[in-house]
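> call design_seq(struct)
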């Protein structure tokens, strides 16, 4: 049995060989070689590191578009990349449930930062499935993403003190964008009629969103996608759709749409028509190189799509006129 104590010793020799041979392809930087290399578990954290560090930091994200961090397990190339990097940034709060043991052990060997845990405990929502755990989906509320951005800034400054001024300026610039996003979200979502502010999604990733913007949130699965959606839960939600006249539900880019389709079919069997209001980004951003492949674009997409699907007023192309996958 592999324990935390001997976990790194048990890694395949090929992973160490690949790491030490330099067999990891880091993102190319346009000008001089980057000062530091960072591996981030999620695309949201990777984006924060890129926004803050610019060309001074080479960032690799382990999890790309459509990847579910709750169930993700490290590959041999992931292990090699983390061993080669100057530091590893992960979310924490039990988001990367299958990686947590490895990352905690890795922290005994190199600089590893759980940046999501910078959010004050009194602003976290208790995890419904695990005692003494919290809902990790803090990025759904831009005001809660601020301390995460600051934690990324501080981590980069600790790794590379000579770049501290660059990281401070990058963080200030990015936080101004986050604040503008938060203001846009509050203004647009406030236009949704009060009786329509019910968000039904594939899993319970939007509780912070609901709390921040006064929406009732109903997820088919629990906070973790590892939890199964039982027949009773499906029936409860179908009953809510029918009795409350809810006409739109949402799929997620990183979660199977199977359960959402079951809701639609269940409501139809009772004579109530429900449509898919759009696809939301929950645990992963959009495609790399697109606006939706940034944190700002991800949340802009969600806010704009939810607003328009539920009867509110938002520009089709979003806050910056850059959405291409919005409703």
């Amino acid at each position: 049995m592999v324990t935390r104590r001997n976990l790194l010793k048990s890694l395949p020799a090929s992973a160490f060989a690949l790491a030490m041979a330099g067999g990891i392809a880091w993102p190319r930087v346009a000008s001089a070689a980057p000062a530091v290399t960072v591996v981030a578990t999620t695309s949201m954290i990777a984006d924060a590191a890129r926004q803050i560090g610019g060309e001074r930091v080479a960032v690799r994200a382990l999890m790309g578009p459509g990847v579910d961090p709750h169930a993700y397990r490290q590959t041999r190339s992931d292990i090699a990349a983390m061993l080669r990097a100057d530091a590893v940034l992960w979310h924490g709060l039990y988001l990367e449930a299958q990686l947590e043991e490895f990352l905690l052990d890795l922290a005994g060997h190199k600089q590893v930062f759980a940046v999501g845990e910078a959010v004050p405990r009194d602003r976290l929502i208790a995890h419904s499935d695990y005692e003494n755990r919290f809902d990790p989906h803090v990025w759904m509320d831009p005001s809660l993403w601020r301390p995460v951005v600051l934690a990324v800034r501080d981590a980069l400054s600790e790794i590379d003190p000579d770049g501290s001024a660059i990281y401070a300026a990058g963080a200030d610039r990015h936080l101004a964008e986050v604040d503008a996003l938060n203001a846009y979200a509050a203004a647009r979502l406030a236009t949704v009629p009060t009786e329509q502010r019910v968000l039904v999604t594939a899993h319970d990733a939007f509780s912070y969103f609901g709390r921040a913007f006064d929406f009732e949130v109903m997820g088919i699965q629990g906070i973790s996608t590892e939890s199964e959606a039982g027949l009773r839960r499906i029936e409860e939600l179908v009953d809510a759709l029918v009795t409350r006249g809810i006409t739109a539900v949402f799929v997620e880019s990183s979660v199977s749409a199977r359960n959402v389709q079951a809701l639609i079919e269940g409501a139809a069997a009772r004579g109530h028509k429900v449509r898919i209001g759009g696809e939301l980004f929950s645990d992963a951003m959009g495609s790399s190189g697109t606006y939706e492949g940034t944190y700002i674009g991800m949340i802009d997409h969600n806010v704009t799509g939810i607003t328009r699907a539920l009867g509110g007023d938002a520009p089709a192309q979003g806050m910056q006129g850059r959405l291409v996958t919005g409703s």
